[in-house]
Design a protein that fits this description.
The complex is a heterodimer.
Chain A: E1 5-7, E2 10-14, E3 19-24, E4 29-37, E5 43-50, E6 55-58, E7 61-66, E8 71-76, E9 85-93, E10 99-101, E11 105-110
Parallel strand pairs in A: 2-11
Antiparallel strand pairs in A: 1-3, 3-8, 4-5, 4-9, 6-7, 7-8, 9-10, 9-11
Chain B: E1 4-7, E2 10-13, E3 19-25, E4 31-37, E5 43-51, E6 54-57, E7 65-70, E8 73-78, E9 87-94, E10 103-104, E11 108-112
Parallel strand pairs in B: 2-11
Antiparallel strand pairs in B: 1-3, 3-8, 4-5, 4-9, 5-6, 7-8, 9-10, 9-11
The chains are: A mainly beta, B mainly beta.
Chain lengths: 111, 113
């Protein structure tokens, strides 16, 4: 089964609104990463947050991590139509060196 | 030029045929991966390699084999393709001080009929 599970599976918003996606995981992690995938293309790394960090920012992206709840959220502020894509969380477990991906959230930003 | 290049980008093959997907990278990374993506299932790890002499099975290695011909090259083979191996396949790399971040190729669409 997948380590990371994103919620919601799909999200549709209007341009200018904020988009929030959540990720839950099961085991202890070293870090959690968020990736973006445009339809049919490769995944692109967005941001990494380490297990000892609680919040991280990068441009319009804000990621939080709550290790006690084994969850993370990705917030995209002031969304644009170009943000339309699938967003995946990925976790690197403390006991291993592999990166395990969730099933993704499909974000649609309507102009 | 792309840092991680996959060939072919699209392939239709028949059941029972052998197919090889190739991957090369110019990032100088030690770690290379093959993932498979199916709709609604996210990415699943097939095989990974941390250097030329190191090959490891991932979550779904049955029906697949790999070869790490050089640091920069990692190929995935389907010895006898079956229809449920129809998917989008990604090669990826990671390494060095930035070993936590994975860099993906553009993907190879494989259809087995």
């Amino acid at each position: 089964s997948q380590q990371g599970e994103e919620d919601p599976q799909a999200l549709s918003i209007q341009e200018g609104e904020n988009a929030t996606m959540n990720c839950s995981y099961k085991t202890s992690i070293n870090n959690l990463q968020w990736y973006r995938q445009n339809s049919g293309r490769g995944l692109v790394h967005l941001i990494l947050i380490r297990s000892n960090e609680r919040e991280k920012h990068s441009g319009r992206l804000r990621v939080t991590l709550d290790t006690s709840k084994k969850s993370s959220s990705l917030l995209i502020t002031a969304s644009r139509a170009a943000d339309t894509a699938s967003y995946f969380c990925a976790t690197r477990e403390t006991s291993g060196s592999r990166l395990t991906f969730g099933e993704g959230t499909q974000l649609t930003v309507n102009p | 030029d792309a840092d991680v290049t996959q060939t072919p980008r699209n392939r239709i093959t028949k059941t029972g045929k052998r197919i090889m997907l190739e991957c090369s990278q110019t990032k100088g990374h030690d770690r290379m991966y093959w993932y498979r993506q199916d709709p609604g299932l996210g990415l699943r790890l097939i095989y990974y390699s941390f250097d030329v002499k190191d090959i490891n099975k991932g979550e779904i290695s049955d029906g697949y084999s790999v070869s790490r011909q050089a640091q920069a090259k990692f190929s995935l083979s389907l010895e006898s393709a079956i229809p449920n191996q129809t998917a989008l396949y990604f090669c990826a790399t990671a390494g060095g001080g930035d070993g936590n971040t994975i860099y993906f190729g553009e993907g190879s669409w494989l259809t087995v009929v």
